Amino acid sequence: MPEENVVERITSLEEKHAHQERIIADLNEVILDQQKRITRLESLLRRADDRIERLSVAIEQPRSAADERPPHY
User: Fold this and answer.
1) Is the pLDDT at 1 greater than 70, yes or no?
2) CA within 20 to 30 Å of 31's CA: 4, 22, 50, 73, which one?
3) How far apart, in whole angstroms, are the C-alpha atoms of residue 35 and residue 28?
């Protein structure tokens, strides 16, 4: 096998390896960004669930006549 061919193959493999490392780094950044978004959305969803639960409980509680507005208002 000629030495030139070996050098070309090694150079080609090194280029592919560098390219793959960059792709992996880029994908890692995307995954980290998505995880941050997921965490934020989970937090918003928990707050919305809590609020809905509080509103549901408030709606189900009987109201007193003192809390109601008189009909002439």
Assistant:
1) no
2) 50
3) 10
